[in-house]
Design a protein that fits this description.
Elements: H1 2-19, H2 24-30, E1 33-44, E2 50-51, E3 59-64, E4 69-75, H3 89-97, E5 99-109, E6 112-120, E7 129-137, E8 140-144, E9 148-149, E10 155-164
Antiparallel strand pairs: 1-2, 1-3, 1-10, 3-4, 4-5, 5-6, 6-7, 7-8, 8-10, 9-10
């Protein structure tokens, strides 16, 4: 009986903390590190259509530092190298349209990630503060936006899914 009580106490000690939801402090410390993009989708609010603007297997990383800095780079999975030593205007446009990058500061408030951008690939985000919902489950980080207008004027919700690298 004594052995059974010790075993039950051990299970309660180790299993119950795993069942607890993450707190803001947990998300603040858990987000620190290097994350590799697994998917990048957006869903059109009006139609429900899901798009993959960077393809099925986007490439890139997001880095969150302990000091509250973020830097990310994301590129499409089907980028074409320029034909010559110097890219043509059309090739540069295609490369630009399959790229997203930026940097800034971040903080976590509950399950909300708040990022203030000091640089971005298209300057639209530079100087803005954006809020996203986040969740971390094991080695997977999911970032989801509230509905917002894309460059074509459609209302979308985007979702990034990443896996921890380090």
């Amino acid at each position: 009986m004594k052995h059974l009580l010790i075993s039950a106490a051990t299970v309660v000690t180790f299993v119950l903390p795993l069942a607890q939801p993450s707190t803001a402090q947990d998300l603040t410390s858990q987000i620190i590190g290097v994350w590799k993009f697994v998917s990048n989708t957006n869903k059109e609010v009006a139609t429900g259509k899901v798009n993959q603007p960077f393809g099925e297997k986007p490439m890139g990383y997001i880095v969150y530092t302990k000091g509250g800095r973020i830097i990310f780079s994301l590129v499409g999975d089907s980028r074409q190298k320029p034909a010559g030593a110097s890219a043509t205007d059309a090739e540069r446009i295609n490369l630009f349209n399959t790229l997203a990058t930026g940097s800034g500061t971040y903080k976590v408030d509950g399950d909300t990630l708040i990022v203030t951008y000091d640089s971005s690939w298209h300057q639209i985000w530079t100087g803005t503060t954006q809020k996203r919902k986040i969740s971390i489950s094991g080695n997977k980080l999911t970032i989801t936006s509230d509905p917002a207008k894309n460059m074509a004027g459609q209302e979308i919700v985007f979702e990034n899914v990443m896996e921890r690298v380090e």
